[in-house]
Amino acid sequence: MKTRFNFEHLHTDPSGARRGRFITPHGSVETPIFMPVGTAATVKAMTTGELTAIGTQIILANTYHLFLRPGHDLVKKMGGVHRFMNWSGPVLTDSGGYQVFSLGDLRTISEKGVEFRSHIDGSKRFLSPEVAVEIQEALGADIIMQLDECPPHPAKHEYLARSLEMSLRWGKRCKEARRKDDGSALFGIMQGGMFEDLRRISAAGLIDEGYDGYAMGGLSVGEPKEKMIEVLSYAPNLLPTGKPRYLMGVGRPEDLVMAVESGVDMFDCVMPTRNARNGQLFNRRGAFNIKRLENRESEEPIDPHCGCETCKNYSRAYLRHLFICKEILGHRLLTQHNLFFYLDLMDNMRKAIEKDQFTAFKSSFYAAQAGDGDGGWSWPEK
Length: 382
Prior knowledge:
Layout: E1 6-12, E2 18-24, E3 27-31, E4 33-35, H1 48-53, E5 59-62, H2 63-68, H3 72-77, H4 80-85, E6 91-94, H5 97-101, E7 107-109, E8 114-117, E9 124-127, H6 129-139, E10 143-145, H7 157-177, E11 185-190, H8 196-209, E12 213-216, H9 225-232, E13 245-247, H10 253-261, E14 266-268, H11 271-277, E15 280-283, E16 286-289, H12 309-313, H13 316-324, H14 328-354, H15 358-369
Parallel strand pairs: 4-14, 5-6, 6-10, 10-11, 11-12, 12-13, 13-14
Antiparallel strand pairs: 1-2, 2-3, 7-8, 8-9, 15-16
Helix pairs in contact: 6-7, 7-8, 10-14, 10-15, 11-14, 13-14, 14-15
């Protein structure tokens, strides 16, 4: 019998940052964790062996995209998403709701679900809570997300109230639609926009229904940064301490540090991979673009403190050359660095939490971002 999903809350730093571990049918994951996004069953520009080598513990795949192409039935026939993409670790699948709702005029929402037109060929498709679960079970996901409505920002209080109530009903239908007893988890998703009263209603409804984990949706959707910070000042603590808390679609390195301090355990975002393909790189002193003229003759690595293969072996001058020439290797090396940077950041945060030194780590992180010191991360150890 396969291992069943289980979460263990190991430690809480005085700041509120949490250290945990969850077990899935395809292995364990140490939290807080960042999940590279493999939308179409591939983390762009990376092999699964390379993902393992840089410390990837779990990846995200997308229900909407795999539903449309190549189709969940084919993936199931090929042995599930793990075998299909040759990835032995855990996989979380987004329900596809965000992608559907981003289609705007191409979709119609009702209590039954969402009718939409494929962005590939314009064909009519239908996604309901039951269909979303059917697809994710066929893919063989370790963590399945409920179908919810992700409202736009800004949205009025009245609309958000109706929307979150429907999402709560959809979540219940997702639970009832489960057919496979394979040890996988089902996460509920909190909504409510920027309104604390609605976030509280959503959290209470989710907890009453009971899920294996809880996500926070409706953030990083265009709201001002201060609004996201305000929501994260209370929203994670509305959720159970004994279950993982997942902040969907966030974000920049400084957002991850802030959200971990707020009690968040899990993150995903396309930023490290997408930005790499556009030439933007992350390092301990912030973000910069490799295309800048100052990198043309630079023998320096992207980040002298980074242990990734890109930084150990290649100069900024060479990486800029590859990018300007549109060489595929350039995209691969830049992606490898950005993902390593994110995963290394999470590893450093886990270590700081274990030592009750997260506040000192946060100060060191922001000092480096501001250009103080040598750009390294350090904090006193007890």
